[in-house]
Amino acid sequence: MRILTVYSLIFCLHLAAQQPNAPNPKFLPEDPELYFSFFQFHNDLDQQVQSANPVLASQLTGNAIVAYNVSTEDFTKLTLQVRAFAKDFRNWQFPVQAYFGKIQANKQLPDVNVVKAFQFQRQSLVKSHYDAIH
Prior knowledge:
The chain is mainly alpha-helical. The protein has one domain (2-13, 35-133). It contains five helices and no strands. The protein has helices spanning 2-18, 32-51, 54-68, 72-105, 112-133. The radius of gyration is 17 Å and the shape is elongated.
């Protein structure tokens, strides 16, 4: 399942790079891909914290709070929002995986408009969770 998601992301990025007016490949501060990467990173960290023993969980959380330069309260709010993002992202992945599974089974190429719509939905999802943090 994760392979299809990676495939769809690579395909989306490839399409964006092929556009004649493609933006500079540097990430801008408001770029949804930057926040998507951060949400993924923080979600992975949260999974490690949840599966760790209490001492290690406390250490990981403390180190993250220092690295992020936020208060414990803000870190907790961020983590709750990232968990909500992760849930919404998993729900977003179901139709994407179904679509790519179907076209792969039928040996078809993806429809560019469908892929762009998926990309827009994912970016909107990221932006809505980013906005909820601020």
